[in-house]
Amino acid sequence: MATKKLSDRIRETLATAEADIAKMPDTHDGIDLKSHKRTALIQLQQSLNGVLMLEKLTA
Fold it and tell me: CA 43 → CA 17, 30, 48, 52, distances in Å?
């Protein structure tokens, strides 16, 4: 059985996290959370990009 690359495992986690973030409310107690949700998704994607770069450089 082949070992999954770190980036593949992160992609799976990212997909789950994206679904969980989408389920979160856009507002809470009158506070707009849409920008925070968007920022969280961007940071997750940047983390994946960093791992992909590391894999590419160490291949």
Answer: 11, 24, 9, 14
The pTM (predicted TM-score) of the whole model is: 0.75
Q: What is the pLDDT of residues 7-54, one digit of tens each?
A: 898 889 999 999 999 999 999 999 999 999 999 999 999 999 999 999
Task: Report the phi/psi class of residue 25: left, alpha or beta, with left for phi > 0 and alpha for psi in -120 to 50.
Answer: beta
Nearest to 58 by CA among 6, 4, 1, 2: 6
CA–CA separation, 41 and 1 (whole Å): 31
* Pick from 21, 4, 23: nearest CA to 12: 4
